[in-house]
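@channel anyone free to eyeball this complex?
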Amino acid sequence: MRLEMGLVHINNVCFGPQTVIEDHALYIDRQELISVLTQEPLLDGIEIELAHPGESCRIIHVLDVLEPRYRLNGPNFPGALDGVGLVGAGQTRALKNLCVVETSEDQARGRNIIDMSGPATDYSPFGATCNVVLVFHPAKGADKDEYRLAVKKAGLRAAVYLAAAAKEIVPDEIEIYELPPVAFNHGPKDLPRIGYIFPIHSQQHPTHQKETVFYGSNIQGFLPTIVHPNEILDGALIFSYSAFTYFAQNHPVIQELYRRHQRDLWFAGVVVTVAPVTITEKQRNACLAGRLAAEVLGADGVIATKIGGGAVDTDLMMIYERCEEMGVKTALIIMERYPDTGITFVPENVDALVTPGLTRDAITLPPVERIIGGNTLLLDNTNPDNTNPGIPPIPANRELRLWVGDIAGAISQVGSSRLITYIG
Amino acid sequence: MAKKIRVVHYLNQFFAQIGGEDKAEIGPGFRDGPIGPGRALQETLAEHGEILATLFCGDNYFAEHSDKATEELLHHMARFNPELLIAGPAFESGRYGVACGAICAAAQERLGIHPVAGMDAENAGAALYRKHVYIINSGDSVVRMLPTLQRMAALGLKLVQGARLGRPEEEGYMPRGIKRNAFAAKPPAERAVDMLLAKIRGEPFQSEIAAPQFHHIKPAQALRDLSSAVIALVTDGGLVTEGNPERMEPGRPTRFTTIPVEGINRLDPKQFDVVHSGYDTALANQDPHRLVPLDVMRELEQQRIIGKLHESIHATGGAHAAVENATRIGQSIAERLKSAGVNGVILTST
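replying in thread with the prediction:
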């Protein structure tokens, strides 16, 4: 299966009389975009704001971040936005250096901030992209969960609408992602076959019945399965929480395995799984994921990543143990959350862990002139760990003392970050 | 020019030029401005900081009256309203090193002053205080006085300014066992693939996260005779007396509560509260017996199924507890219960 990702580099974004890309600048017809997005009945109002790199601007209450994409040969985000269909083959246009940022003030969990200048930009890619920020207001009486899903769907709609402007544009660059069917995916004997076991969700926060995570499925009762890596890159997966969808579209592990494919490894394929709730389900999923990697992909080694909270350490370690038992060497990427405490659960034989960084590492962000996505934050500036519901909101444009993990995009559990940790 | 940072310097009797071992009994005191190595420290601080006073104490006096000496030194220190305390360097002198560590820890904890101590890594003070305060490794020789003072000053200025500290080997401080972020040369996915390929090839590789060391606890023998046993109730569900007078934290707990229940047959929800960030506490607040079954234990006591219920309930919170804190809390509770003659514990978790 072959995916041609046509990259169209964008270096500026502004509003204009029609939505068009000219000379690497994206002009957006604001009214047309608003009318496209207000198709969702749960949304009462919507504002579109543009944020540029270097601006004294802070985006708060970030719900999800997307790279604008338009598929020339088939449905976009099938099952989630367009009807049922498949992705991962054919031609896709991607707007690079531009993101669609969904904000939602209902987003009480996590602080998820993007600063367009200052120290936060050292940590996250989203401070260096031109950002089209969608600020939504719920319709009166809208159900909280359904409103969140409507916001996410509107984000997909915006991502497709913007990238459609690149339909007729000759891409600046074309990336080829190509792997044959598993049965024919053979390389030379001296290159180790490497697979990727990818948990896409932890049901410790269950998906909503109407949630569209994988090809439109709410993934309740999901069992481990083989997917083509191109499907992840091309819009099959919309994260529920714990990661931004941008990092599925630009998946760091999949991209790294493709980059080194045929050089120092052979990319054997991807197993997608979820972290369920009960111990029996966790054990079953770990067994099945390991079995698929070992016996269907024929992997010599696998990378596995974590998604979700501390409870999911267990699932990841089970995957590790089952793979190693089946003779598949394993390395894990697992984020660290506390400066003074290790990972919740690490069996003695687990010897290959990579950290994308420590979330609870304090950082001070300077005041900014402009705020998008609300005016206040629930933050105790003297103790970012204070999650008491009683803490009073503070103006979001002031100097903030919070955690590196609060910077959207700084540490992604799927393996994107610029960080490593040390004992200081 | 920026405002000068207010600094005080702590020295022992020798470096404060009062005298040698013969003056080691001298009590705490202070002089305005820098003394001895303080002059070199002032030169290093230059226009960034000013040494307002030098505090001193005899090594023996501090070792023998450390609480009293600390009190007096803090009292002297407070009058200068300093932002930074530089203590030592003490090199290999153990009594001096311990005094530097103690005064730094106390100043940090009680006066909110940023402290930097200096001593050799083998100094007893380093083992005692390196986890609590930044200690520059001076080595064991006084020859390294100047470079040590320079590192202490540089680190101190960074602490006061709230600047980001570099790694221990860059700044010269002893690792405190606290994890920090640093920018990496390669992204995590690339490092993971490198590590995996090395593992497959049988080449050496280094995991980036050390596995935690857990101690295996052998369970106590089962109780033979319940009817004569003293049973205690302990919970990690966050039970506190109404108003939380013991100030137990809702998450990341460092302490536990002791709630007297002698003569109490029921836990009145108005007199108790539940403090815990890890679960919805509404049900436990409505009826604390859902957390600690005092009511049932009293019935068992009356029916003589158990000998006696212990006179207090101990509680802490379980949400995101650091293993070190949880271990210490558990040991303290166990010691108390054991010395009170408790034979068995019902531990309720959430």
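from a first look: The domain at 5-171 of chain B is CATH 3.40.50.2300 (Rossmann fold).
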